[in-house]
Amino acid sequence: MTIPHTGLRAEPASFRDPANRVFHLDGDVLRGLDEQAARDYRALAGTEFFRALLAAGKVCGTEPVEPVPGTPWSAVLRHERIPFVSHPYEWSFGMLRDAALLHLEILRAALAHGFTLKDGSAYNVQWRGAAPVFIDVGSFEPAREGEPWAGYRQFCQTLLYPLLLQAHLGVDFQPWLRSRVDGIEADQLRPLFRGVRRLLPGVPTHVHLHGAMQRRHATATTTDVRDQLRAAGYTRDLALATVRGIERLVDRLDRPPPDSHWADYQRTCGYSAEDRAGKERFVEAALATGPRPRLVLDLGANDGRYARIAARHADQVVAVEQDPAVVDRLYRRLRAEPERRILPLVMDLADPSPGGGWRGVERSSFAARTAADAVLALAVVHHLAIGRNVPLPEVVDALVELTRPGGRIVVEFVHPRDPMARRLLANKPVGIFPDYRCEVFERLLGARCRITRRLDLPSGTRTLYLGTVGG
User: Fold this and answer.
1) pTM flag (> 0.90)
2) Cα(67)–Cα(278) distance, rounded to whole angstroms?
């Protein structure tokens, strides 16, 4: 949406709170506040706890700016731009858990200083590399005595329930969150936690009791529930104790990444030491030459070996890998390091995140969010073309479409005689991929970008290309 005569573009994900809306203008991320929200922000900005959160980088950089002419807002804030917007169903278990802990830490600090959060959504957290950051500054408001946390249900549905699902049952939460923008309902989870499972940590209170309370108060208004809680003696101290209890629960929840076929790919993929060294030199030179990339996309990142090389030459690297366990291992390593330029994400490249939510744009698709300055597609083409039966021309088209005009593509073609390709072909009918040949791939790539460098690795079964899109 564009507001007449201002050039402002509304953020499609920001419409549920009419008191404040996020817009974009000339590269800036702006938040417009109505009169009440403006008063709340001025009170918030004067608190020591909020300034401490900003200084620690736990809340996104925020500053007031001049109001925008022609708009109804009483005040306008400018936020730092997050390097790459991701969605919770693209995170690993460790990422979702750390996002939940950050949310609770901020809520606890707010309650202790007379504020609360309107919301409890996982979408209120984004990432600077492997560091979570809270972005919904408009969610802060003064706390009112006797009122419960309004965001508790959202927190359960988008953060706590997915964590319980995976921590207790070993079920990956990503497909559940992707299928419902508002998260997992208590009634969806209850049938999975019957018998002795209903006694697992967090389940009695936050699944069964919460679900029962929702059904009991299904016809009651929010005002009715608040009045009942006040009458029962519910206080801010009790609210703070509740948050501390949830924080302890989430802190104890864990699901160490299980063994995976891809977990030790560098050792099992069949590369010789000479091939690996040549490949690393090729990638390093491709990214070190020319303008510094703002965003590099590493497709099929595995353990992040090449994402780390890219991070030496780029402002931000998004490392995409299909296996949640591999992504979680990479995230946990990155979290323990000072590196803050690599964002690992869980995604199947043959089924990337689509647009979702209201009108299909509230949560934008992966392709809509991505215009990379450089794309690394190393040892991924054969998995799409042979393993997933994606026509080779469409694989090339997809790589080009993720790259901005003038951007670079570094791509590896694995020949049909390579051991990995032969393993994939062994599960397919003979002759099903007659066009899967190096010369065909090179012709297709050359038709979509200018090939500036080519290297056959010492094994003779893999070829690397560097291309410039639009060249």
Assistant:
1) yes
2) 55
